[in-house]
Automatic annotation (TrEMBL):
<dbReference type="InterPro" id="IPR004412">
    <property type="entry name" value="GatA"/>
</dbReference>
<keyword id="KW-0067">ATP-binding</keyword>
<feature type="active site" description="Charge relay system">
    <location>
        <position position="52"/>
    </location>
</feature>
<feature type="active site" description="Acyl-ester intermediate">
    <location>
        <position position="151"/>
    </location>
</feature>
<protein>
    <recommendedName>
        <fullName>Glutamyl-tRNA(Gln) amidotransferase subunit A</fullName>
        <ecNumber>6.3.5.7</ecNumber>
    </recommendedName>
</protein>
<dbReference type="GO" id="GO:0005524">
    <property type="term" value="F:ATP binding"/>
</dbReference>
<dbReference type="InterPro" id="IPR023631">
    <property type="entry name" value="Amidase_dom"/>
</dbReference>
<comment type="subunit">
    <text>Heterotrimer of A, B and C subunits.</text>
</comment>
<comment type="function">
    <text>Allows the formation of correctly charged Gln-tRNA(Gln) through the transamidation of misacylated Glu-tRNA(Gln) in organisms which lack glutaminyl-tRNA synthetase. The reaction takes place in the presence of glutamine and ATP through an activated gamma-phospho-Glu-tRNA(Gln).</text>
</comment>
<comment type="similarity">
    <text>Belongs to the amidase family. GatA subfamily.</text>
</comment>
<feature type="active site" description="Charge relay system">
    <location>
        <position position="127"/>
    </location>
</feature>
<keyword id="KW-0547">Nucleotide-binding</keyword>
<keyword id="KW-0436">Ligase</keyword>
<dbReference type="GO" id="GO:0050567">
    <property type="term" value="F:glutaminyl-tRNA synthase (glutamine-hydrolyzing) activity"/>
</dbReference>
<dbReference type="Pfam" id="PF01425">
    <property type="entry name" value="Amidase"/>
</dbReference>
<dbReference type="InterPro" id="IPR000120">
    <property type="entry name" value="Amidase"/>
</dbReference>
<dbReference type="GO" id="GO:0006412">
    <property type="term" value="P:translation"/>
</dbReference>
């Protein structure tokens, strides 16, 4: 079914940039045989999965949608990928993205843009636009993306699917090509909360090969969503005024309706205020530039593919140049150290707000996705990220779930919770279905 769907729609949507049907069929047959022989099968048995092109999968091309790595072939499986395979998930292909995950529209891919299956002719969001589009177009059951400043939640919002960014350190980044390693997290896309729960259960947990992972008791996410009717009873929802002030009217209306419904289902609303929203984008981008500059020094044309500066797109080059400039010794006190201080302040304020409530709820993205081919200034593109970068700056879990639409264009609602309260968000997502 999925292969048929991909063959029919992928040429127009371009959610996948590489596919391997033979291997997928082989794996499916092996799982079938196991079932026939009465052998035990894994949690993901028979589920078809798409993987963002910046996560290593053996024998696929791991290009990060850049010409720099056009011919780079994965020689090992990232930890998340080995865990998927160990649970009998079937990896069907690699999904499209913004070059090196640096974007919010999936327009900067070396392979060409991805279209939005839910709102054709518009961007699918990004940078994990291919993964979100693959789910929205029914090309696979589950997909993985990476989220540095919103790259899972933003395309989930624009494509009308669910996307989850775990607590920093809850899921291993081993085998992920870094954008900014102190923000990056891998997480799932799905059409429903049970898919999100299932994938989190498989990929979360400490990894000896990745030193920022946390040694935590991974909840049984799939069993914690069995009572969605009661999930909202007594739940304290924090509604931050500023998240609504920066969002477009029709989006605000949809989210407010949803909050009212949650209140009717037993949730309590607490109005909150966050004074540092204006600080979030500059802080995020300064740190992103510096960490990305550092991460790209290995693409010098000797070991992996081409020398990055010679072949990359405009946005990637901008970040490398800015990162190199900001990192100069004479500026350290001026930009990077200031950004680190601001980041601590933001983290303190946000976790402070979360002390009084269970989750923060609001829009995921403050505006609707633009039409493909519209040319945007960098600052206009960055403006999409204002509500999503907060969770990465603070290291907290956050997710986007479909909330409604404006003339058919999907709008997502974001939940953010305390570190390692990922389970609470999954329960709330299940209650939205
Ligand atoms: N749009 C943000 C950026 O360009 C976030 C990207 C991401 O999360 N990978 O950095």
């Amino acid at each position: 079914t999925f292969i048929k769907q991909i063959e029919e729609h992928n040429p127009n949507i371009r959610a996948f940039v590489e596919l391997n049907y033979d291997e997928a069929r082989k794996r499916a047959n092996e799982i079938d045989d196991k079932i026939k022989n009465g052998q035990k099968v894994g949690k993901l048995a028979g589920m078809v999965v798409g993987i963002k092109s910046n996560i290593n999968v053996e024998d696929f091309h791991i290009t990060a949608a850049s010409r720099t790595l056009e011919n780079y072939q994965g020689s090992y499986d990232a930890t998340v990928v080995s865990r998927i395979k160990a649970e009998d998930g079937i990896i069907i292909g690699m999904t499209n993205m913004d070059e090196f995950a640096a974007g919010s529209s999936t327009e900067t891919s070396f392979f060409g843009h991805t279209d939005n299956p839910a709102a054709p002719g518009r961007i699918p969001g990004g940078s994990s636009g291919g993964s979100a589009a693959a789910i929205a177009a029914g090309m696979c059951d589950l997909a993985l993306g990476s989220d540095t400043g919103g790259s899972i939640r933003n395309p989930a919002s624009h494509c009308g699917v669910m996307g989850f960014k775990p607590t920093y350190g809850a899921v291993s980044r081993q085998g992920l090509l870094d954008l900014a390693m102190s923000f990056d997290q891998i997480g799932p896309f799905s059409r429903d909360a049970s898919g999100i729960a299932l994938m989190l259960e498989v990929i979360a947990g400490e990894d000896r090969r990745e030193c920022t992972t946390i040694d935590w008791n991974v909840p049984e996410f799939t069993s914690s969503i069995t009572d969605p009717e009661n999930a909202l009873k007594g739940m304290k929802l924090g509604v931050v005024k500023e998240f609504f002030d920066v969002s477009d009217g029709p989006i605000v209306n949809i989210i407010e309706d949803r909050i009212n419904q949650m209140q009717e289902a037993g949730a309590e609303v607490v109005e909150l205020s966050f004074d540092y929203l204006k600080l979030c984008l500059p802080t995020y981008y300064l740190i992103n530039y510096v960490e990305f500059f550092s991460a790209t020094r290995k693409y010098d044309g000797r070991k992996y593919g081409e020398r990055i500066e010679e072949v990359c797109g405009e946005e990637v080059l901008r970040r490398i140049q800015m990162g190199s400039y900001i990192s100069q010794k004479e500026f350290s006190g001026k930009y990077y150290n200031k950004a680190l201080q601001a980041r601590s302040l933001i983290r303190k304020e946000i976790t402070g707000l979360l002390k009084d409530v269970d989750v923060l709820v609001g829009p995921t993205v403050p505006k609707l996705p633009h039409k493909l081919g519209t040319s945007l200034e960098p600052m206009e593109m960055y403006a999409y990220d204002i509500l999503t970068v907060i969770a990465n700056l603070a290291g907290i879990p956050a997710a986007s779930t479909p909330a409604g639409d404006v003339n058919g264009i999907p709008v997502g609602m974001q939940f953010q919770a305390k570190p390692l309260d990922d389970e609470k968000i999954v329960q709330l997502m299940a209650a939205q279905e």
